[in-house]
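In keeping with the milestone schedule agreed at the kick-off meeting, the structural modelling team has produced records for the first pair of proteins. Each record is given below as a sequence line and a structure-token line. The laboratory manager (R.T.) confirmed that both were archived under the project's standard naming scheme.
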Amino acid sequence: ERLIRTITQHIHQSLEVEQILQTTVTEVRQFLQTDRVLIYRFNPDLSGTMVVEAVLPPWVETLGLTVEDTCFLTKPGLAHRYRRGHTHHIDNVAEANIDPCYRALLTRFQVQANLVVPINCGSHLWGLLCAHHCRGPRHWQPKERALLSQLADQMAIALQQSHLLAQTATLAQQEKLFNDIISAISDSLELTDVMQRASHQMLKTLQASRSLVVLCQPNDATSEYTALAAAADITFPRGQVIPIRDNPHVQWVLSQDQPVAIADVTQEPTLAGVQPQLRKLCIGAMLDVAIRYRGIVKGMLCAHQCHASRNWTAAEAQLMKRVADHLAIAIHQAELYTQARSELAERKRLEAQLRYDASHDRLTGLPNRTLFLERLAQALDQLHHHCTNHRSLAVSTLEGAPDHCCDCQFALLFLDLDRFKVINDSLGHAMGDQLLQVVAQRLQTCLRPTDVAARLGGDEFVVLLSNLSDAAVAVSMAQRIHAILESPVLLEGHEVFIHASIGIALSATTYTDPNQVLRDADIAMYKAKGSNREYAIFDAPMHTLVMQQMELENDLCRALERCELRLYYQPIINLATGAAQGFEALVRWQHPRRGLVPPLDFIPIAENTGLIATLDLWTLNEACRQLNDWHQKLPHSHNLTVSVNLSGKQFVRRDLIQQIDAALSRNGLRGHHLKVEITESVLIQNAQMAIDLLKQLRQRHIQICMDDFGTGYSSLSYLHRFPIDVLKIDKSFITNLHRVGPSTGDYEIVKAIISLATNLNLTVVAEGIETVEQAVYLQTHQCQGGQGYYFSRPLSVEEATAFIAQLPLPSPAAKTETACRESTGPTA
């Protein structure tokens, strides 16, 4: 009696149902001295949710769990028994004759004895009041079962009171809800928000199943629900297509000024063609009204009653009409606002696009040089502001003390794709662009969120690594980028391999301008490329070397003007007779401060700067002039020839033949006095053009020498295509011929080249002969000519003049041979 009085008092004092239910289960658990008491509320699908609970440890808590008791689905009679007020108890779950599904449910919650009482609100089974004994079996007394039944009735009263109170509150708020709809329309310029709020408010006001807004015009073929609100147990017809033009009911609604009320959709003739859709949406009754602004249809406002018919009242129809009229005003205002906003958005979009285009590379979408330098400047500013008292990233790493570095340190990676020009020229620029896009995509997959990648132009990319504490991170990133770029790329059936040279510049407070960091990373990249390494880290000696190279480049530009270039002449010897056949003209640079600069130091600079063509032309004219001078002064020199090297840039000049003709004519020389030396790479760049040009040279009795033979691309496959006279074996094959007698390796290669040339009626000249053993081996295997330090180093003009003066006078047979060659042209 005390317990019932306590619960009854709570029901009268409190309107909070959940508080009443929680107090009930707490009091009941204490009174019964059991382990768990809970209230299980039924969901529409007959699953249940534990809404309140009182439980003693260590037993499992169930509050908030949703449980599907399959017994309710397979045995409808169970729910029916509970609706009739029957209770259920089990004294010993282990021995009870119950369904396996129920036993599994009780075992899940460690229940060994339970008592279940239904909570019925009228004919509606609201839920169950359950008492669980978990520590062992328990015999439930009849008084205990009766007590729980009384308490369930008290809770049903509390639930019914709460429901009636909610209904009263709903009626009282209907006019207020309508005012809220008008307020929502007046307060918001977002049409979707207005319509959605109106749908929700209409749903509450009409107590309907659905409230919907459809924006459409009578001539539209179809439309979709623009805004929708539905009761909790009603599905949302998202994406449902509504016929408009061919729908008699919709056309009827849109043609009327007043709402159209349908109490039972199955009895309405205008809905006969859409009955399957109505059944799918569970619509039993409809109240629709057209939304019009100054006579122009903007859409429809609809209310649905699902699973049942409904007689709509005149007040409800009038409410729909008033809301539709206000929605029409809101739609018109939103159209004006949307138009203005669209114009503003388009302007902002264009401005943003212009800003984006100005700061990003159009091909790859990566930041361009401008944006990257801004990011680099920010990183540099942060370094100066926060890390002035810290050692540089490079120093801390080298000294093994990365803990002295702050998180504002950074590193710059400068990437250049090796042989990209070859890919671009062979496959076309469109393929080259695709390759650059692939590189950009792969770069981005390597980056951390704080890193930035950019394309500077051409095949140059940069990466800014931020928040570094160790230079090893930059090295690791360079290795990772190098590895991911090496995977082959398939471009329209062509498999392309990428290799990148990477330069790394580490942050330091000595940098004051972002371009300085970029410069040093670029220098390190060229260091990596020149040494055939994956990456190189910039250091001070690199900058010194670059400055020296730049100074050398500037000096080279003036070398021709200042007459600082010299030609040296290395004799080419007939190995069979030991007589001199001619000279190879080798350019040297007599620098005013550096002295004699070797070719390896300035020829690459001349090629990179484009001066090589001018240098080649000077060499051609100077060599011809000097040979003519010897012919005039030294009778010993009439049979001598001069060999001149032609670079790739000079060889492809359209006026090359005219330049050679002019040089020979100006110096009174015949074509057989001149030999031109070219490499295989020069020939294969444009094979057909090379063939035409070589034929013109042979017509002038100018012999063509293939220089550095054996080190090119496909030497043997090109010999039969090009009109070549002389093969010059590269000195790399001659160097290892250091002892007498046959051997493998270079011995066999040299022998094979001589044999091949003999079969093709070509003359063979070996370069780089430095020992008697090499000379003897070549002579033994019928190599016709040779040059190298064994015979003579390159000679100055004075030394070469003295060398010629010591030569014996040409024999009458030699003079006759020369005359025949001049009159009949070159042999095969």
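The second protein of the pair:
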Amino acid sequence: MSNPAAYFTFLFTDIEGSSRLWEENPDAMALALARHDTLLNDIFSQHGGDVFKMMGDSVLVAFQQPSPALQAVIQAQHALLAEDWETKRPLRVRAALHRGPAEQRNGDYFGPTLNRTARLLSAGHGGQTLLSRTAREDLALPDGVALRDLGERRLRDLSRPERIFQLISPGLPADFPPLRSLEVLPNNLPAQLTTFIGRERELREVKLLVQSSRLVTLTGPGGTGKTRLSLQVAAELLESFADGVWLVELATLSDPALVAVTVATALGARGNSERPVEDALLDFLRSKRLLLVLDNCEHLVAACAQLADRLLRSAPHLRILASSREALGIAGETTFGVPSLSTPEFFGKRLGGPDLAARMAEYEAVRLFVERGAAALPGFVLTEENAHIIAKICWRLDGIPLAIELAAARVKMLALPEILRRLDDRFHLLTSGGRTALPRQQTLTALIDWSYDLLSEKERALLRRLSVFGRGRTLQAVEEVCSGHGIESGEILDLLQQLVDKSLVSAEQTEAGETRYYILESVWDYARAKLVLTDEGALSRTRHLQYYLRIAEEAEPKLTSREQAEWIERLAVDHGNLRLALEWGAESEEARENGLRLAGALGRYWEVRNHLKEGLEHFDTLFSPSDSPRDAVRAKALGAAGRLAWCQDDNAAARQYLLQAIDLYEELGQEREAAFHAVFLGFVDWSDGDSKGALPRFEAGEAIARRLGDERLLATALSGLGTMADTAGDRVLARSLKEEALVTFRAIGDRWVIGLVSWGLSRVAISQGDYVAGRALIAECAAIAEELGNEWTVAYLLEGAGEIALGEEQPDLAARLYGSASLLRERLGFIITPAERPAYERAMLRMRTGLPEPAFSEAWAAGRALAIDEALSLAVQR
């Protein structure tokens, strides 16, 4: 469960020098640590503390108020001091108390307050207990206990200084070395005005890399937080370097010859007119144990690489942490790609349900937006109402910290929906960064300009052309679409690699072992705007449409075969590309026919993968103007549009499309296609409650199919005739006809239609009272829906399972299943059709008479709260 953020007092402890104790006597240390854990857990729990985490030798406890936490730590320190430890040296435990807001979720606590407590703990020494200013407030001190004011100190989170107090209690040590704060350790790390959010995994991994590799380069696109991460890593490693941690900022430097001078100045290594500064720098560093942080190397990468190589060869104890859009490319370098902050995935998904705010708060990007938004507009918080839109803003911004901060700054002027809408013109929205920021970090445009200007002309051309793709692209696709006009196909791989190295493109391996290349959406928008300014935009988009038309037409026959699951997934991976290709088909008169061909080839894919509304919108756009050629391309598209309309219960549109398709196929002399669409129109008639109109269509379809020897058409017509028999009350004939159709489709291997016919057969079995067969058929349909990634059929499966539950005298289960189905219908915009209404109303009546009203309402609501997989599991249980 999740609770809103509330104030807690956190008490963190750990053992000083535990690693050395383990090395000296691991057996004794294991016994001592077990005793330590039991002792602290018992004491903290007795005082009302929630011991929510014990990691290694650390204990993390949450208290409601600071006074019980202070009493607990005093008792614990006395107990630890009195214990007769069997280790060579007694256990010396340091402790820290800090109070602030945190979110409690699933037995754990989250928020910047915990990070601040950990930083406070790291400043102390064994046996010492430190308190922050907020922990001291409203604190009732026991008799004889005092707090020593240690003044304001900079902790290792680099943000605001913290006023620190030390616990003074009779019988406990009171004198300790200076705190391990930034003031007493040699460094020039700047204070940061904002907190460091997230990045726990990256922080941990980079610290380990710096300890094992002498040169670590953080790479990534502009704005991903490379500098902030490198500063935090440097702050946390201060104690590891006796001669300090030193930052060298290179962003404002333009002359490569000044790199060595800038490094020497930061370190205080003075040269003279008779001796090159680089030689003086080498002598200065030769014996130093020091971490050098080189920030923003990309525009001076050659000079930085040469200097780093020389320094590392001459100074054996030197380590370098660099940040750059691309690696320095020298021997011994370890690169670490800094990813964007974690965001929820919106592509093809809906976000909702209970505890949405708590679930969205788990994403780093959302937490950053909320904190920076609160800084701009006091009182701004994450709520159940705004969680969806904040998460979508963060997703649209690819989790790029700089972009998120710029967007969050707008909350004082714009409502969240306005910010989301304006992201379509993000380069005007995301401006006005802090006045003290570098010019290239004050707007998103300037940030990407910085990277774009560093590219060669061919790299720029390829980046522009890559913007015709959406949601990733393969090497083959890039070679076919982006080559020509100054770029040979054989150059594409090397140019792509260069863009990857410069962090403008990322390469990812799919589960199928295929490499796909991605661009952040902000970079994509930028490159697309650049493409429009050239004369290559129309040609690139036309070639993009032609490429994906070929892919879709290759896939089309596979979508009705045994290979359909594989090919549907292939198309799903390129859904964004297919969408962009269709948009160009609608925009360009010359490309319209290819656009209509593409849409016609995608009809089955859209039907299976729930893109019903989107597919129809593409068709409607491509069907205009109405005077387009009357050919097989248009006929196929009309037929596919009719199926999509029927699937989403728009029978009027389905009828219009299908009648046009039938007329056109008859005009073209394509009897089989005309007959097939006429049979499908029979299902539309039946759905409208017009069985008299539907029956002759199915009968005519059966006759034509037998004459032509077309098994698929015959099976479709027989399934329709089975539906007519079921409607007329002849269950035996209905079942026989449906089973015959199912045998044919099983032989063909069309899993999608097997699922549809099985659903129809389950309806007949349920009507006969054969619940075993009905449940088995529903389970098969559910398995097919999951296999193919279909969602919209689930509502019908749940209602069928609900009928079985009613037949087995389980009205509570039936109400849950129908309740879950009702939510799906609402989300998808599905109605209860005239053909469905009698059975639906009978089921509702049986549920309401079988359950008291409160019990019915409770079960219905419980069903609507179920996830789809939970509802399906409930549906097929025996």
